[in-house]
Design goal:
heterodimer, A: ABC transporter involved in vitamin B12 uptake, BtuC, 15 helices, B: alpha/beta, Rossmann fold, 11 helices
């Protein structure tokens, strides 16, 4: 009896410590159970599970990029543009004359490296505009998004670049032993690496400090400039990874793939508990929010009678319900 | 520390259990497949669900479904984006439909997801994608070069077979628009020697406002310009408005592909004589019918009747592209017959 009580107390403490996360997990379970109950023959199939695991990584990884900018109290509306510019760079290298006669692995690795560099450079530009020119992040990244997409359109003439090495597009289709799609593996690595970086390192805790109170961070001797640039560069690289995953699944790169992801990523980040004012938000919360959004999206496609607008509607409602719950349960730090 | 590890484990466990608990279901799902009673599930995936055009295609498909007692419905993204379209197709494959009818946003981008569908035993039919590889058949309303030639014939007769004309396309990367333009220009060169093409192909970015502005620019640059050859559905309303505003009705001619709903007022006012089109209802019906025929094991051969107007006797090219005679010329007399 006593032991039971102890356990309960432990559980409660556990819940109290990160309400945001547990609320999200509960919602994910509810959504999952509801759909599984209504459409078991379609939703509870291994095909559907694998298909969902392969779908969310691309926008999930891009969401982390948005999340990083939001931790500093900013936002990044150029993620999708960076993702496309990076994957176009990779596609040029993978399909260009440079790769002729070289081994497939070398060509693919070179393309991936070039994409990461492009993403880093684009992120750096964002950081410079935000920090040095004091442009609000929202305006700055709307501007750079136009520039990045403009470059993409100019170099591709608006066409899709296809004809990637066969091995590369296999990445988007292959499952590891029929259980884990490779895009999901990439997503999992991003989650683990980013969790470690944000929760376990000084770099991470300084980002939270900077986002919570920039003045205080400055006075305590934090190099705000270096941190801003690094966060945006990291965000740019994550956007590039998202772009590479997207490229493996479309088997081509184009200036306007995934345009709709921009706002979707912001929404998922907020749903995942990232504070738009900066300084709060956990990777695990965002990861669960990504799952919730995918469950809803896939579920809608299983009901012939529901049209696409329902998806947007349900996403919006979920977001509002979560916000209200957070406010009443005291999980919102705005309330603290 | 413990909390974080536990939560990480929790997330992972949750995800894995989804994949795991589903494993046993696999066989059941497969058993659902045969449904040889004709009660097939056919999903239509349009470029987006916002456009009226695709709503009409869906209605045509649904009509076919009702007649044959099978389920036909539309599922698509909220904007014309290849990535969204791929997500939708992924979900539809997972939900185990029998056939998918797609109007691709981007032919290349869809190849691998359509291959996945075919590998899963799903019948794939496309429309407006004559170069798509991973499809059973691509259904075309008509031969694109001929369609362009017909636009040219109509424009030429309005212009008295002489004078300068220019060509507008939605974008330089749009496959069918440029094929129509090629066909039209070829016809002019061969049959109307007194007509002259001026300027490059004008890109209107699928926007009637742009078409309007470009038309005004062209009429300023080429004062003797007498005709506009339109391809994108936004060409006609944009150019017609420019013609009206500049008081050039009767002096400058225009013919192009358009929907009666957006060109109707200009036809009624006499600003333009006619437009050309194909009927999206019939496309939806014909695509569903083609998918149904393939599913029920009918032999698909030259001259097959898909039961839709303009698709009664299909021509097959390269075993992949199926061409009908769904061409429509719409003028003052028959305008009220078409509701798209």
């Amino acid at each position: 009896m006593q032991k039971n009580n102890q356990n309960r107390n432990k559980m409660l403490m556990f819940y109290q410590k990160d309400k945001t996360f547990f609320q999200l997990v509960i919602i994910a379970v509810i959504v999952f159970a509801a759909v599984a109950f209504m459409k078991p023959e379609k939703f509870l199939t291994s095909e559907n599970m694998l298909s969902m695991l392969a779908q969310f990584p691309q926008f999930g990884i891009m969401t982390f990029s948005v999340m990083l900018a939001m931790l500093l109290g900013g936002i990044d509306l150029s993620v999708v543009a960076i993702a496309n510019l990076s994957s176009i760079t990779a596609a040029f290298i993978m399909t260009g004359s440079w790769g002729q006669g070289k081994s497939g692995t070398v060509v693919i690795l070179a393309g991936v490296a070039a994409a990461a560099l492009t993403g880093a450079a684009a992120g750096w530009i964002n950081g410079v505009v935000v920090y040095h020119f004091r442009v609000p992040a929202m305006l700055a990244t709307i501007g750079t998004a136009q520039v990045f997409q403009g470059i993409s359109i100019a170099v591709t003439q608006g066409k899709a670049i296809s004809g990637l090495p066969g091995a590369y597009s296999e990445i988007g289709r292959l499952d590891m032993g029929g259980v884990l799609p490779i895009p999901f593996l990439v997503f999992a690595i991003c989650v683990l690496a980013l969790s470690f970086l944000l929760n376990r390192t000084t770099f991470g805790s300084n980002i939270y400090m900077l986002g919570t109170n920039r003045k205080a961070a400055e006075y305590s001797g934090l190099k705000v400039r270096a941190y801003t640039l690094k966060v945006f560069i990291l965000g740019g690289i994550l956007a590039a990874v998202g772009g590479l995953v997207m490229m493996s699944r479309t088997n081509s790169a184009k200036a306007d793939y995934g345009d709709a992801y921009t706002l979707q990523c912001v929404m998922i980040a907020i749903l995942g508990g990232v504070d738009a004012e900066g300084g709060a938000g956990k990777v695990r919360g965002v990861a669960v929010a990504v799952l919730i959004v995918q469950f809803i999206a896939s579920a809608i496609n299983m009901f012939p009678a529901l049209n696409t607008y329902t998806k947007t509607l349900i996403w919006g409602l979920t977001l509002i319900v979560v916000m209200i719950w957070r406010m009443f349960s005291g999980a919102s730090h705005r309330n603290r | 520390m413990m909390k974080k590890m536990l939560s990480a484990v929790l997330v992972l466990a949750m995800v894995l259990s989804f994949a795991g608990c589903a494993g046993g279901k696999k066989e059941d799902a497969k058993e659902d497949q045969p449904s040889s009673d004709g009660n097939y599930e056919i999903a239509i995936v349009p470029k987006d669900t916002v456009n009226d055009w695709f709503q009409c295609i869906a209605q045509g498909g649904e009509k076919f479904g009702k007649e044959k007692g099978c389920t036909v419905y539309m599922k698509g993204g909220s904007s014309a984006d290849a990535s969204l379209q791929i997500e939708v197709i992924e979900d539809i494959i997972a939900s185990g439909v029998d056939a998918i009818c797609v109007v691709p946003n981007d032919i290349d981008a869809l190849e691998s997801v359509l291959k996945k569908a075919q590998d899963a035993g799903i019948v794939v039919v496309t429309h407006e994608a004559s170069t798509q590889q991973n499809t059973e058949y691509d259904l075309e309303a008509f031969d694109n070069a001929e369609f362009g030639a017909t636009i040219m014939d109509s424009l030429a007769s309005q212009m008295g077979e002489e004078g300068q004309y220019c060509v507008m396309v939605g974008s330089l990367t749009n496959g069918s628009h440029n094929e129509w333009a090629d066909g039209g220009i070829a016809r002019q060169e061969e049959a109307y020697p007194n007509m002259e093409l001026v300027g490059d192909r004008i890109e209107i970015k699928d926007n009637s406002e742009t078409a309007y502005e470009k038309a005004k620019e062209m009429l300023k640059t080429y004062p003797d310009l007498k005709g506009f050859f339109g391809t994108a559905t936004q060409c006609v309303p944009g150019v017609a408005r420019a013609i009206e505003e500049l008081g050039l009705v009767g002096k400058v001619s225009l013919c192009g592909m358009c929907m009666p709903s957006s060109a109707g007022e200009y036809i009624e006012r006499g600003t333009i004589e006619n437009i050309v089109a194909w009927d999206p209802y019939e496309v939806g019906y014909a695509m569903s019918s083609l998918a149904y025929n393939i599913l029920s094991g009918e032999e698909i051969k030259e001259g097959i009747d898909l039961g839709a107007k303009g698709y009664e006797s299909m021509t097959i090219i390269n075993d992949k592209v199926m061409i009908g005679s769904g061409f429509l010329e719409i003028n003052k007399d028959n305008l009220s017959e078409y509701k798209f």
